[in-house]
Structure to design on (313 residues):
């Protein structure tokens, strides 16, 4: 990882960029990365700001686009020694994969991963926002503890996760007005709390892990009109009966989860100025609905108004 001394904040306006440009910008702020689109769309609307102080690097990344994967590139130009990355999900969802594990993050949730090993960040369609803390690897108790728990979700809704998430989220702005020593101490405090959270049991149960895995699979495939409970069960290596039992701990059934994700994405599409030329039928098809009439009924039931009224504000 390139270490920069002193303080810097380099915000970029939200703009439409192609995958190659976004890959280059991410690689400049993190390590060398690949960006792979899971649909035909080859552009994203992005915004990123980064603050650097001492050995602390903190970024806020905001992306809107179709499903895509950000992956640690296999090509490494330098041996940077690796970095620990901590992501707090601020909006949308993300799936973090590393070491054979995966964590499905919703707003407020936290996960750790290491840049010296292969990792994936999978983003479903829609808008996603993260705060990402990046520090060089060091032989500390907290660091050793965190490296043993990469791609493990720390819920932001309870336990120490409720304190860790806001702290890490605040670091990009906080270190702008701090000296290097203060920035480093603040970061180490956040890492200590995160390590304590993981060691004290602020982790999800096995059944919750299975639910996360299923929801992650749904999020990445919801636009596919052939997505059904049986195909989801196959995708997450569960029997159909087991899949339905897993969703009993959720507020929604498997089918309702799929429908709600599709409706939320369609609602965002209808308000997207870049899609004003798309018809409602085209947006319904884009988001996996069989036809415009069934989409309109489901939309009105969920949002209390027909799609055309929603689009017109």
């Amino acid at each position: 990882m390139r270490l920069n001394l002193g303080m810097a904040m380099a915000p970029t306006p939200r703009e439409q960029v192609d995958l190659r440009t976004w890959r280059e910008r991410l690689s400049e702020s993190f390590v060398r990365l690949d960006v792979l689109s899971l649909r035909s769309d080859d552009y994203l609307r992005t915004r990123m700001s980064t603050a650097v102080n001492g050995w602390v690097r903190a970024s806020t990344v905001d992306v809107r686009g179709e499903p895509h994967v950000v992956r640690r590139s296999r090509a490494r130009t330098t041996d940077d020694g690796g970095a620990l990355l901590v992501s707090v999900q601020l909006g949308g969802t993300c799936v973090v994969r590393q070491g054979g594990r995966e964590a499905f993050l919703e707003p407020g949730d936290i996960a750790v991963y290491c840049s010296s090993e292969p990792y994936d960040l999978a983003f479903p369609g829609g808008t996603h926002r993260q705060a990402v803390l990046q520090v060089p690897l060091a032989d500390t108790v907290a660091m050793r503890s965190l490296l043993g728990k990469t791609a493990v979700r720390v819920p932001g809704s309870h336990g120490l996760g409720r304190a860790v998430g806001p702290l890490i989220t605040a670091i990009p702005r906080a270190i702008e007005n701090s000296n290097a020593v203060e920035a480093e101490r603040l970061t180490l405090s956040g890492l200590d709390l995160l390590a304590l959270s993981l060691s004290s049991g602020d982790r999800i149960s096995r059944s919750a892990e299975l639910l996360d895995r299923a929801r992650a699979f749904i999020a990445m495939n919801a636009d596919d009109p052939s997505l059904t409970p049986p195909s989801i069960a196959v995708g997450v290596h569960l029997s159909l009966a087991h899949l339905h039992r897993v969703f009993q701990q959720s507020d929604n059934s498997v089918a309702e989860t799929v429908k709600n994700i599709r409706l939320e994405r369609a609602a965002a599409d209808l308000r997207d100025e870049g899609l004003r030329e798309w018809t409602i039928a085209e947006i319904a098809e884009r988001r996996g609905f069989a036809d415009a009439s069934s989409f309109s009924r489901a939309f009105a039931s969920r949002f209390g108004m027909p799609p055309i009224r929603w689009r017109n504000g």
The first strand starts at residue 8 and ends at 9. The radius of gyration is 20 Å.
